[in-house]
Design brief:
Length: 105
């Protein structure tokens, strides 16, 4: 009986790993495909920020929802905030940028 249960559960795991059961929803209601696309977009924006010498990427947090990038954090000056926004807008797939960056005093 125990071997049968293990065999049946093993089949479930294999089916799940092969992609069966995909197509669900992320915790926030987006499809997994939408959430994945946003995660890839966030990674691309982060890469653009890291590559640019005019922005301290560690000061900027990037979140993406439905292709809209939100920048938060504290940067040293207006030029850094504007540059981060411009870099985010230049990334392919970004629909809009919401700049909530604060300027340190």
């Amino acid at each position: 009986m125990m071997l049968l249960a293990v065999a049946l559960l093993g089949g479930c795991a294999a089916g799940t790993m092969m992609g069966a059961g995909q197509g669900g929803r992320a915790e926030d209601g987006r499809s997994y495909e939408e959430a994945r696309a946003d995660n890839l977009l966030a990674a691309a924006v982060n890469r653009a920020l890291v590559r640019d010498k005019g922005v301290r990427a560690g000061d900027v947090q990037v979140s993406v929802h439905d292709g809209v990038v939100t920048l938060t954090g504290t940067v040293p000056g207006n030029s850094s905030a504007e540059r981060a926004e411009r870099l985010a807008r230049e990334v392919d797939g970004v629909k809009d940028v919401v700049n909530h960056l604060r300027i340190s005093r």
